Amino acid sequence: MLLSEILPHVARLQPDYYATKYRNEYLTYQQLLHQVSCVAEGLKNLGIGPGERVALAGDPCPYLVIAECAVIAIGAIPVTIFPGLASREMNQILEDAAPTAIVYDADHPRIASSLSAPSIAFTITFKPVNGGLSLEDLIATSSPLTAWYTAQPDDIALLIYTGGTTGRSKGVMHSHRAIRKWAFMNPARGGGHNPAKKSLVPNQAHLTGQFILWTTLYEGGCLIYPDSYPQQANEVIDIIEHEQIRFLGTVGLLFRDITALAGNRSREVGSVAGISCGGAPISEKTLQQALEVFPNAQISEVYSQTESGQFISFLSVQECLAEGKLHRLQSVGNPSHMERWGQKPFEVRIVNDSGQEVEQGEIGEIICRSEQIMLGYWNNPEETDKTIRNGWLHTGDLGRLDEDGYLYIADRKKDMIIVGASNVYCAEVEQAISVHPSILEAAVIGTPLPDEGEEVTAVVVLKDKQTLALEDLQQFCGQSIAEYKLPTRLVITQSLVRTSVGKIDKKAIKETMY
């Protein structure tokens, strides 16, 4: 099913079911379809046509859903922009995507200063501002669009910009064909089959947010919006309790905070039947605690990339425990298990620098292939050719496969420290450090030595009222990793710099070290 077909289909099946809830205000599927159709007609009347880009900027809310669905309805390409970016970063995305129009929240303090891209012919606010064009105006004055655009399967459906941790952000192009292969978009079940579903909507400029948006609409569920962003653990728990949320999609840091807070305050979270968590490795300690806090939930750790478009693999925590194979908690699961979620599994290989497959158990680059991977990077054929070779997506992640086909992430390919003649994978050292009782969170980076080479530097945030010396950390980590992998430098900080999508920004951390 094309993205443009989802909302009309579900609205016919479930017109009176709730599609969105925001600050105690609801939109039914029939109401959402009407508002989307009016905005789509208004955009079409402005002359915006198929293939043109329309930027969308604002914290997740029903206005953003209406705008994105309307853009899809006329065959244009939505470009969602995270409003927490600096003006320079937003402008870089606007310059690269060259949108014809931007739809934005005029009340957001960061966005108004970032509308300087020369391609923008129309600026449309969510609500009326000083007589300018707004979504509310289009809803009130436009007739509903009657003929929704029919895209070709390989047309670009979404343009999602990466976090840009290694340089300028790149626009990842995903096709209608790829998206309709996503997990839970199973055509055998048809659309609108799960109207009891309620989903908390995260950052809509990220792959996770897009996945939750479109799969919830496909299933005929209700999109629930917190009052503010970024989501805070206490508000998420409040919504779980009040709405009796059954399925929760989240990312590593927030998942850790939700688990800790819900456990400490004995909150009522028993309604949660399933949790999927990705974005960053999850410690075994957090997973074990989550099993106690969410006793009725099947907990899964997922592995994906913006470029992969969907889950490459997932790990069932309960399954590891039931089979008595606790070492698998350090993996991201078995790629073949994606069939359980109604998704055709990726082909996954581990290769060396020459592109040859390594022996089972050896570390190499993870590459994968499926219909779900991106078409490429927008206006960037050079980077596309580096990343997709002979149909295989080169993830840039280092990992290994065990004898049962479980995938273990060792590190980012470029996130490696050479100590003497040996490779030190930062993720392995971070795993050893993170379980220290005085440490809240940690990042491991390579910092240059006075003459040549690098040393292993641990940058850590301590728990309240805790202290830590390098010698104590080395002694602790020496129990689980080789001596040459031990940190030789310790930096204690109040917080770790993060990217716009919540991942630890090692590039920025390194810059503070020099």
TrEMBL record:
Residues 428-503 form the AMP-binding enzyme C-terminal domain. InterPro entries: AMP-bd_C (IPR025110), AMP-bd_C_sf (IPR045851), AMP-binding_CS (IPR020845), AMP-dep_synth/lig_dom (IPR000873), ANL_N_sf (IPR042099), ATP-dep_AMP-bd_enzyme (IPR050237). Keywords: Ligase. It holds the Pfam family AMP-binding. One of its GO terms (molecular function) is ligase activity. Residues 9-378 form the AMP-dependent synthetase/ligase domain. This is Acyl-CoA synthetase (AMP-forming)/AMP-acid ligase II.
